[in-house]
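## retry 2 of 3
previous attempt timed out at serialization; input unchanged, resubmitting
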Amino acid sequence: MKKIILILIAFLLIISACSPEKNDTSNNPLQGAVQEFKITAKQFAFEPETIEIHKGDRVRLIVTSLDLPHGFSILEYGINERLNPGEPVAIEFTADQEGEFTMFCSLYCGSEHSEMKGKMIVR
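## retry succeeded, writing output
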């Protein structure tokens, strides 16, 4: 009986030693988690104006227009969405490029449309 228990323990130890390691998240406890930001659009601004994320992060932006139709675009990430008032739009992507990227309104919304910008910083 003792031999069977010892063999079983040895077998379990060998199995656990051979199994693939899980991702090491000691440097980034949120690795693998989705970083979510709620952004509002209104004439003529995005709030928050700047978001900061880490390269490799999975990102979810929930963008909602508060007043009238707007667009939400980040060219380098191929993002260009229409925002209808009061209808949240979920945008998901992986931040695979480092740098500072302009978030801007891509749908004409009035006299200061060209000033409706924000910034996404990926470090």
